[in-house]
Amino acid sequence: MSTQAPKPARRRGSAAEEARYAIEQAEADGVSREDMTLRMTLRDASELKRDPKVAVADITFGEGGMRYLGVAVDQGGGVTQSILDRGDTGYVRGAAPEPPPAKPKAVRKKAVNADGTPKARAPAKAKAVKAPATVE
């Protein structure tokens, strides 16, 4: 007897097909297209622009950036998988992501004696000076 793995619900399509499906689902749930933002990976955004199956009327470029089916597209990357933000999260369209926290600067530890007092530094070595050569 062999056990079969369950089949996935649906197969992943092109970036345009996935975006269209997500937009239609959100619209069916009552979310307006003005509130939505497509947050796309750089690869998916590039694929969407070059897809020959996408009608020219579906993509627009203007002052507000790129729009697909009337939904703003954030193509700055910053995501590992393209997602549709429905406007119900803390994501702000066009805002720069928060930088990672700065690492504290490394501090060299000072040498101390067993009793906690600082160790005395060794005197600096004197450089040897060569005597000038004499010519006879």
- How are the strands ordered across the major sheet? 2-3-4-1-5
> Secondary-structure element sequence?
HEHEEEE
Q: Helical amount among residues, as a percent range?
A: 10-25%
How many DSSP-defined strands?
5
Number of helices: 2
Features of this protein?
17% helix, single chain, elongated, 136 residues, 2 helices, alpha+beta, five-stranded mixed beta sheet
Task: Report on this structure.
- It is elongated and about 95 Å long.
- The protein starts with 14 loop residues before the first helix and ends in a 51-residue tail after the last strand.
- The protein contains 2 helices and 5 strands, in the order αβαββββ.
- The mean pLDDT is 79.
- By secondary structure, it is α+β, with helices and mostly antiparallel strands.
- 17% of the residues lie in helices and 13% in strands.
- It has a domain at 33-85.
- The longest helix is centred in the first third of the chain and has 14 residues, at 15-28.
- It has a 5-stranded mixed sheet with strand order 2-3-4-1-5, covered by helices on one side.
- A hairpin with a 2-residue loop joins strand 3 and strand 4.
Short description:
With 136 residues, the chain is of the alpha+beta class.
Secondary-structure map:
Layout lengths: L14 H14 L8 E3 L2 H9 L8 E4 L2 E4 L2 E4 L8 E3 L51
